[in-house]
């Protein structure tokens, strides 16, 4: 029997700095209901889905900074998401800023969770690849201080059983690094869910910034194909506090083909019936890792090649 997982990507338009958690959760609930109405069993929300993308600012006041984080999950503000998910029988991926105190020390992560149709958290992920800077950079219209406001993730890239398949998570910049998909590909992942907040002009070089949307899809389509997995990429987009961010949320098949794509820079639900067995044929042929991958031959044989050894 085909393992068809009807999946939604719930793209978000801008979240204003002063928008309340209740207002934002209200928007998420509306899209969760729309997804359920289209027969979805899973809805993938975006990165930092509860607040504006605050790493665009230098925030000196610690209380203000802490206000963007959740200290528990579900929190009072997000409990309605869990309640509605259980009532509707739909699971969800949710990105948010996580603040925890360990031995009196504040730990801060850019986190995502996977919640099943019984509203149980079945997987947690913390963003490994943090782009941008730890100190404000001169000459930028907007900062990108994720290295200041988050630690690199300490949970690896877990793949868990859920929704009838092998489910993995990533967050935003992770999608640009092949290791992200391969570490999960080696765990036989069948769907990678990820949210992203991708400002135009991030690099500050026109030749690269003009390719922001191309690189967005290139990264995810390559990751999907080379690891024979579905990839669901959900944007937060539009003009958010003056910072313009790319949209074009997508659902990508293991072939690398885009099967659904958002066409606005607002809240928009896109859906696809994802056959979780679609990747199997690739894993049995082109990407049969056991038959074709040769990690034992990837090393640098300097004496035979005269290659330049990497700096140790
Ligand atoms: N944002 C961006 C991302 O990786 C970025 C940062 C934008 C990097 C454009 C390179 C090019 O999509 C986050 N939040 O990681």
Name of the CATH homologous superfamily: Carbon-nitrogen hydrolase
Number of helices: 10
State the helical fraction.
10-25%
**What kind of sheet is the major sheet?**
6 strands, mixed
End-to-end distance: 51 Å
Please report which band the strand proportion falls in: under 5%, 5-15%, 15-25%, 25-35%, 35-45% or over 45%.
25-35%
- Radius of gyration equals 20 Å
What order do the helices and strands follow?
A: EHEHHEEEHEEHEHHEEEEEEHHH
Shape: globular
How confident is the prediction overall: mean pLDDT? Answer: 97
Looking at the overall shape, the CATH architecture is: 4-Layer Sandwich
What features would you describe in this structure?
This protein is an alpha/beta fold. The chain has a single domain, classed as Carbon-nitrogen hydrolase (Nitrilase/N-carbamoyl-D-aminoacid amidohydrolase), CATH 3.60.110. It has helices at residues 21-37, 62-66, 79-88, 146-149, 178-185, 206-209, 212-226, 280-284, 289-292, 302-305; strands at residues 4-11, 42-44, 91-102, 105-115, 121-126, 159-162, 165-171, 191-197, 230-236, 238-240, 243-245, 250-252, 258-261, 268-275. Helix 1 (21-37) packs parallel to helix 3 and helix 5 packs parallel to helix 7 (212-226). The radius of gyration is 20 Å and the shape is globular. The structure holds D-[(amino)carbonyl]phenylalanine. D-[(amino)carbonyl]phenylalanine binds at residues 131, 172-173, 176, 196-198, 202-203, 212.
């Amino acid at each position: 029997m085909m393992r068809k997982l009807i999946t939604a990507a719930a793209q978000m338009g801008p979240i204003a700095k002063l928008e309340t958690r209740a207002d934002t959760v209200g928007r998420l609930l509306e899209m969760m209901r729309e997804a359920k109405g289209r027969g979805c069993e899973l809805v993938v929300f975006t990165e930092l889905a509860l607040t504006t993308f605050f790493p665009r600012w230098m925030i000196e006041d610690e209380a203000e900074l802490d206000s963007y984080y959740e200290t528990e999950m579900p929190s009072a503000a997000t409990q309605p998401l869990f309640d509605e998910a259980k009532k509707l029988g739909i699971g969800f991926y949710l990105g948010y800023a996580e603040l925890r105190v360990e031995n009196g020390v504040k730990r801060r992560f850019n986190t995502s969770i996977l919640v099943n149709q019984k509203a149980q958290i079945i997987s947690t992920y913390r963003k490994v690849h943090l782009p941008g800077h730890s100190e404000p950079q001169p000459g930028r219209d907007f900062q990108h201080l994720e290295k200041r406001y988050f630690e690199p993730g300490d949970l690896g890239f877990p793949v868990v059983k859920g929704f009838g398949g092998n489910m993995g998570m990533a967050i935003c910049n992770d999608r640009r690094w092949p290791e992200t998909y391969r570490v999960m590909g080696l765990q036989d992942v069948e769907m990678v869910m990820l949210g992203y907040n991708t400002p135009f002009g991030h690099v500050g070089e026109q030749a690269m910034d003009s390719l922001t949307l191309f690189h967005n899809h290139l990264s995810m389509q390559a990751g999907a194909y080379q690891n024979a997995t579905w990839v669901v990429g959900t944007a937060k987009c539009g003009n958010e506090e003056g910072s313009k961010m790319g949209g074009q949320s997508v659902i990508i098949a293991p072939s690398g083909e885009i099967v659904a794509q958002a066409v606005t820079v607002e809240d928009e639900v896109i859906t696809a019936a994802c056959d979780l067995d679609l990747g199997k044929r690739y894993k049995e042929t082109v990407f049969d890792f056991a038959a074709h991958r040769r990690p034992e031959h990837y090393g640098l044989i300097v004496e035979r090649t005269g290659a330049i050894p990497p700096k140790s």
